[in-house]
Structure prediction request, 255 residues.
Amino acid sequence: SLLPSKRWSGVVKMGAAVGGGQGGEEEETRQAKEMAAARRRWETLIREQKIKTLTPREAGYTFKLTDKVLLDVRPSNERQKAWVKGSTWVPVFDVDTSSDLNGLSKKAFNFMIGGWWSGSSTMSFNKNFVQQVEEKFSKDTDIILVCQKGLRSIAAAEQLYNGGFENLFWVQGGLEAAEEEDFEREGSQPFKLAGIGGVSEFFGWTDQQRAQAAKEGWGYRLLFTGRLVGAIVLADALFVGAQSIGPLLQQLQPH
Prediction:
């Protein structure tokens, strides 16, 4: 299969919005069914050439040498780290900035189930995605869709196809599968590192950073080793400080 195998809950929800059903099953079972249905639809669109597939290198050459549009559908927290020069940005999902009770509870739940480690943010589906693309491009425009890993962009391509867009191209594997020379990059991070965050990124413990370290050498590794040593020293200092404060507070208490 050309599609990424990793399940992603945000795209599951969009699969439901595009064509998945609502059922009475348990949430996990329902989402699994919706994802399976969405994958079947996407594979059919690709197999029937209604959405054409490009590798990152092919997409890079095509974007440079033709008048095709490169549409970046990633959320703002990924886009701001690295983007393709000259690309157009319309997120199909973006970081949820709601501050109501429901939004805050979702953010707290996301943090507890691993957001603190991976840096993943709570996302909200952009209900105006197709309309925003329509405002920028006619429906006969050649559009290359790209995201970080390839899953959101194929879901976005389905949205545009259902909205009447005729010439759609999907970048298999997304920017994470691209080499730096495939596209002209802007931003502070390599393409492969734009989708990571949290504690795992800070200490260099992601698969993407390990791969980067293999290319960069010891200088890159030492940066994160220094951070780890610094964190250990800080934790030790806080522990010693906490032990010292206890007796001091007892002495200050009135007898």
Summary: The two ends are 75 Å apart (CA to CA). Strands lie at 51-54, 69-72, 83-84, 88-89, 93-95, 123-125, 142-146, 167-171, 185-186. The first helix runs from residue 9 to 18.
